[in-house]
Amino acid sequence: MGRLFAIEIIYRGIFQKTMAGRLSRAIVLAAHHEGKVGISFGRYGDSPERNGIPAKGFAIVATDEQTLQEGMAKYEPKEVDVTICVDDTLCKGVESWAWYGLQPVNRLLKPGGTLIVTSREGPEAIIAMAHRKDTPYQLSILKGTVSFSGLWVYKDDHTDVRILGAVAKILPELFSLKSVQRAIVDEWHDELKATSAAKAYDRTTSITVTPDQGNPEVPYKFDLPKWHEMGEGIAIPSIPAGHKMDDPKSHAEGGFQPDRNPTFLKFSTRTMRPVVNFDTCIKCTLCWLQCPDSCFDVTPEGLYDANMKACCGCGVCEAVCPVKECVTMVNETEFKGNDSQWEDWRKDKDGYKVWLEEKIKHPPERSHGFRYRGQYEEQIPEMLEIAQEK
Amino acid sequence: MAVATVIEEQKDKLDKTALITGSEAIAVACQLADVDVITAYPIRPYDTVMQYVCKLVANGEMDCEYIVAEGEHSQFEIVKHASACGARVFCGSSGVGWMYAMEALTVTPALRIPMIAMVGNRALDDPGAFGVEHNDALAVRDLGWQLVWVDNAQEALDTALIAYRVAEDRRIFLPLAISCDGAFLTHSQALVKIPSQEKVNEFLPQYNRGDLLLHPDNPITVAPQGNEDWVMEIRRQNYAAMERSPGVIREAYADFERIFGRSYGNPFFEEYMTDDADIVLMGMGTLSISVKVAIREMRKQGKRVGFVRMRWFRPFAAEELSKSLQRFAAVGVIDRDYSFGSPYAGGVLAGEVRHALYPGPGKKPPVVGFICGLGGREVTVPDVQKMAEAVYNAADGKKQPLTQWIGLRE
Q1: CATH of range B270-406; options 1.10.260.40, 3.40.630.30, 3.40.50.920, 3.30.70.3290
Q2: Distance CA B319, CA B409 (A)
Q3: With contacts defined as CB-CB under 8 Å, which chain A residues touch B230?
Q4: What is the strand order of the sheet B16-21 is part of?
Q5: I want to staple B72 with a disulfide (CB 3.0 to 4.6 A). Which of A97, B55, B97, B247 is the partner?
Q6: CA neighbor of B30 nearest in space, from B136, B152, B163, B119
Q7: How far is CA A96 from CA A245, A267, A334, B296, in A?
Q8: ω into residue B127 within 30 of 0, thus cis?
Q9: Mean pLDDT in chain A?
Q10: Over 70: is that where the pLDDT of B7 sits?
Q11: Helix, strand or coil for residue B200?
Q12: How far, in Å, are B65, B79, B168, B351 from residue B82 at the CA level?
């Protein structure tokens, strides 16, 4: 048996599916320049054609065909040498459409394997988001603005080739910088991309994350029923309509909270979340009406509280809100928990105001979408500055 | 009966005898079963049923929602949904019409819908042809449909009542198609005993969808998307329902005999002159008539030939059949269908019979397959005699093709 390499790419549906495909493909091609064989694939059960839904791609490489078969005789690898996470907010966990429950971002890493994350954040923020792991692993942050594009367009900001350069540094047995540069030029006919790979190679460093570091929470999970325990006729109980809400301060009941799917929580679908200023809300109902996921709970006093179990982070609420900075989308990396903002506000209005202003004081970074022509060009200087950080 | 010509009142004043076609017999069964929703779209020979039903409705003799759809796909989808909402339903089609409904036909068993359909068996296009072949109904044989073939109008009526009883049993909840040979059964009138409403009511309980009822008072979601974590378990549930079907069929036939005083013996297949038979022929549907006549003639010449007519094709009574067939020196299977490229190039039934015999205990008689009567071609008495000769050859161990085309110009 020869040597088997498995690389996992965790990405967001639509926004990053082209990048994930390019990465796994280039990994196999680069390894092939060194006489290795490999297969590049996306996990079929995921829904990579859904905005923001966490999904996975894999590159399996081996020193010979038989060893490759050993690696492919599984639906997906049970352990990987490197996990590439191309959106740092996915470090909070991965819940795709392929399974139920939340999977830690570092779940498949072999002991001593490396998690590569593209992020503007430092290691403390990444480690705080990722769940704890029994064995130590390496963390390598590729400094950069997280690269999001769309179904029809690709944001050619060199994130892909920079990651490939980092992989050459982290796993030199898989392929050398020279091989990956050759694959990059063969594939995309651009010497500048090969230069970007080399720069990332030079800058790549990693730190060890120990079992006592990280988010101590046990990720939520669901047990699948046996065939005779399931209802027949592909019929499932409907989710009940909902119920009144309880005011945590006055204990007055009122408003309306829709009941929600107990087995599919949307925490990891989101890259941004709305922050609501309840003091300036005029109760116009627009956010509540327009939210495509019915994520707003109606509070007893008629305010609208975005429930994090249901929010996908699409930003429609912010777009339709007529009041300045009453609903503001803020990057998901800025938050730890998923608690109700309205409850926090009811408990301590002054404290909430301080918290809210802190969250929205800087122009909030958008994970996806452009609001006007030329916005990308405006972003480039800042993106370059971040990418050159050590 | 306005549609049927009543010619005789029985001793039991509530039972009647009428001269009606096989299609009309099915329509009368729908009336007796008090079907709630019927959908229609014309295609020969099934359209005779929809015409008889709409006459019953128009004459005020039957109360149901009668919906003419814009095509077979919608026709089967409408009753599927109505059944999910608790309605007793009926529909049907023929040939390519049945095939046009294929998507609806595939989802119906998965959703555990006890839809009753009549297939007026018809050759699939091309060429456009009206005559009988069994490939239309057989196209759903692997999907969870229960399939039964009848060979006369009385059996059509009785089997339709039994069909509702079996399909709507909570242990089953699977759709059921009654196959009636085009022309020979759908378009010829025969004397049929029509049971009283009281007896039918005793035999056939109300359809109770129970916990699967799609109704605002029972909020459920039907047919959500399921990934690889779910599909296998869902298929296993249908497998279990089909496994329970033979037992429920036996119960229904036993109750039918008790209430109506008519017996079909073994529900799954009819045996004709098999007690002392050396060899047997097998087949489904109306070809039974010329086979039986030919057997009586051959017996005059001392040839002890018997006949096994399969009624239920799904579920297939494999163990019982293989046990029965061991008694004979050879078996000839007449297929009014084709399965191009199948093992030994045989028809569908021949393949199933060989399959049934293979794991069975004891002797495995040789099986010869015959492709015969395609596109509505007559299966003649000389054809049957020719087939019996081939089966005798097989019994004698003579070398010959395992599949033979009979009644072909060559």
Answers
A1: 3.40.50.920
A2: 37
A3: 224, 230
A4: B5-9, B16-21, B189-194
A5: B97
A6: B163
A7: 30, 11, 22, 69
A8: yes
A9: 92
A10: no
A11: helix
A12: 10, 5, 14, 36
ipTM for the predicted complex comes to 0.87
B225 to chain A, minimum CA–CA distance in Å?
9
Q: Is B9 helix (H, G, I), strand (E, B) or coil?
A: strand
**What is each CA distance from B43 to B71, B89, B111, B122, B129, in whole angstroms?**
10, 19, 26, 10, 11
Q: Give pLDDT tens digits for A82-140.
A: 999 999 999 999 988 777 789 999 999 999 999 999 999 999 999 999 999 999 999 99
CA-to-CA distance for A221 and A371, rounded, in angstroms? 37
- Taking CA atoms, what residue in B is nearest to A96? B227
Before A88, cis peptide (omega within 30)? Answer: no
- A328 - beta bridge partners? A275
- Strand, coil or helix: B108: helix
CATH number of B5-260: 3.40.50.970
Counting beta carbons within 10 angstroms of the beta carbon of residue A309, is it exposed (0 to 12), middle (13 to 18) or buried (19 or more)?
middle
- Give the tens place of pLDDT for each residue, B321-330: 999 999 999 9
- Cis check for the bond before B315: say yes or no (omega within 30 of 0): yes
Query: Which residue in chain B has the smallest CA separation from A240?
Result: B219
Element (H, E) at B23: helix B22-32
What structural domains does chain A harbor? Answer: 4-209 (3.40.920.10), 239-360 (3.30.70.20)
